[in-house]
Every structure is written in C-alpha cells, then in structure tokens.
Amino acid sequence: MKKAFLIVIDSFGMGALPDAASYGDAGAHTAYNICKAVKGPKWPVLKALGLGNCAMLSGKTLPGCEAVENPLADYGIMAEKSSGKDTTTGHWELAGLELDSPFHIFDPEYPSFPQPLVDELQAAIGRKIIGNCSASGTQIIDTLGQQHMSSGAPICYTSADSVFQIAAHEDVIPIETLYGICRTARQLCDAYQVARVIARPFTGSPGSFIRTGRRKDFSIRLPGKTVLDHLSDKGVITIGVGKIGNIFNETGLACTYPEKGNQACMAKTAQLMSQPVSSGALIFVNLVDTDMLYGHRRDAQGYFKAVSEIDQWLKHVITRITEQDLLIITADHGCDPAFRGTDHTREYVPLLSYRTNRAGRNLGVRKQFSDVAQTLCDFFRTAPFSKANSFY
C-alpha cells in the first residue's frame, strides 16, 4: 500500500516573510546564512532535489547549494498564514489547522509571568519557583542550577515563543514528578493561551550541567481537527516520529515513536519504511536538532553539519521511495543562526515533493502551509479537508 513521508527539518527557514518586520525578523534567511558561513559545496541530495531552486523563489542563491536545471522533486516555498513563528503553529498549519490569533507571548523582562499564574502554580505544586524570566535554556541552568539544587525550586523561564519551560535536576525532582508539575502548569497556562509547557530535565553538577534527552512538550489542546484526524477516519494509518505526538497531544495518530534527536528519529523512520502496512500510511517526522541544538544557540557550523547528516540519510531514503509513495520535505519556521537574539525567525519554509521517476516542477510561492494537508488528501484519495490548494 502507498505511504507518504512528511519530513520537517525543524526551523530550516527560506527567507523572511513579507510581514517579518512586525516580528523583528526583517532580513532573516536561515538556509542562506548557513551556506554563507560555511565554504564549499553542500547537501548534494537536497541540491539535486531542488533546495537551491526553492531559495531562488525567495530571491537568494545558496552558496554551494545552487539551483539545478532538472531538480528531482517538485519545489516551492510556503508562507505561514497563521500568526506566529513557533513549532505548534507551524506544525498545526502543515496539518491543515490555521489559527486566527497568535498564542500568548510572555514578557521578556523580569518578571515574565503574571503573578496570579505564579501564585496558582506554587500553591498547586507546594514549591516556590525561581527564574521567572526569558532566557536561554542552557544559560539559565548554569546560572540557577545550584540554587535549584539547594532549594528544590524548579527553574521556570520562557522565550520569544509561546512557552512556559520548567527545568529541574533529575536527582532533585524525579522525572515523573517534573512531568506532573508540567501537567499542572499546562492546565493553568490554558487560560493564557500558551502554546507549550516544556519539561527540561538536566543532570550533572555546578559548572557542568547537561540537559538530558527526557524533554517532554505539553501542548495546548487543539481547537479543531487536523488532517491527521481526517485521514485516520478514512482508514489511513497515521504515525508520528519525534515530538509529533507531543505537538498534537497524541490526537489523530494511530501510534507515536517519541524518539529523541535526529539520529534516533531517522533510524526509526528508516525502520518504518520497510514495514508493510495493510492500508495507506502517513509517517510524520520532526527532526529537531537543527533548531534545538544549533538554531537557538546561533551555531551555523553545527546547523550545517546537522543538515549534512539529514542529507546523507535522504540519499538512502529516496532510493526506497516506490512509485506508490510520496516524500515531502519542509520546515515549520526559521531560526537563523546569523540573526540577532536566540529565537525563531518568521520565514518562508522550503517545499520539496518527491515521487520517483517524475520530473520536478516549480510549485511557486504557496500562500499557506496547509497546502500540505490538502495534498495528502489528494494523495490518499480522500475528500478535501480544507480550502487550501493541493500541489499533488
């Protein structure tokens, strides 16, 4: 039976959107600035598929990953119709759920959180909190980790995204207790329309703290159905790999594999490619390292290497795509490592749609991410899910 693979290279932006200035992101271009920072040829598989052709649609030539005359995939770029530049908004729109209003962003200055929220959380968990500011996740545990270990107070912080993050040492607050605190915070944050509450466990000692792989995202309840629900109702098996399950609150998914890190997610996806299915299947994959480890830390070299690893993996993936299958490669927002600050950037995202033995077409500049959802409906021959435009 046919399979569709939807691969999200987290934060792999393709140039500032027309409204980027209102987000403070005018001039951002994640892919271009990575290519400019690293000399030489880059990403041969993505180049052959048409990544450089995508960039040309946003007015840039990617140094070392230029446009090719006969790309293997259909290529384009997509603008985000919903307000925002965060993981939840981007993934939901890819799945056909567009938001009329943005999620709440906490104040970047101390104190970031409204006092009633702080009071309710502290009363509910029986602990004081520390932090209460916008900060880099690695920096704040270096700064407050020792105080946390002495007091037992969880470190609560935010960013330019709609997030309430809670960091705790695993020897001080056991992981299941931390998850319980996050569930409580999730309930309280619903009233503020906060997209995600994130558990950020760490280990180690002062001066050498390390965040562990047991991060967990607690997303706000979805305000409507997505193409995942729609396809499931039509008998398509829907599978999430990486943080997809967290982003969609496990809704619309037959099963999820919450693998941590790109290598584990790519290995699981390769395994799923070889498993037979009794009916059609959608495998929805998030590759988070580009964003979490390198974009937010403004590490262009690390970002380049992470995309290079994805590129090498895709070399094997495309050889296993059958004539019945569809491979879509895209992103959810930008996170330009050459831009100011440490936060996401409001950008176009690349669109590569590959089917074997077909010449690539120019899909142009798409007006919404939800064209992906409509395309999946066409591919699986179901009724339309939204008013978006299919490129199948």
Write the layout of secondary structure elements.
Elements: E1 3-9, H1 30-37, H2 44-49, H3 51-57, E2 74-78, H4 87-94, H5 115-125, E3 130-134, H6 137-151, E4 155-158, E5 163-169, H7 175-189, E6 196-203, E7 210-211, E8 216-219, H8 227-233, E9 237-241, H9 244-247, E10 255-257, H10 262-273, E11 281-287, H11 289-295, H12 300-319, E12 326-330, E13 349-354, E14 362-366, H13 371-379
Parallel strand pairs: 1-11, 1-12, 2-14, 3-4, 5-6, 9-10, 9-11
Antiparallel strand pairs: 2-13, 4-5, 6-7, 6-8, 12-13
Helix pairs in contact: 1-12, 5-7, 10-12, 11-12
Tell me what the structure shows.
The protein has 392 residues and is an alpha/beta fold. The chain folds into two domains: 3-101 and 222-379, Alkaline Phosphatase, subunit A; 115-219, Alpha-Beta Plaits (2-Layer Sandwich). Helix content is 33%, strand content 19%. It has 13 helices and 14 strands. The protein has helices spanning 30-37, 44-49, 51-57, 87-94, 115-125, 137-151, 175-189, 227-233, 244-247, 262-273, 289-295, 300-319, 371-379, and strands at residues 3-9, 74-78, 130-134, 155-158, 163-169, 196-203, 210-211, 216-219, 237-241, 255-257, 281-287, 326-330, 349-354, 362-366.
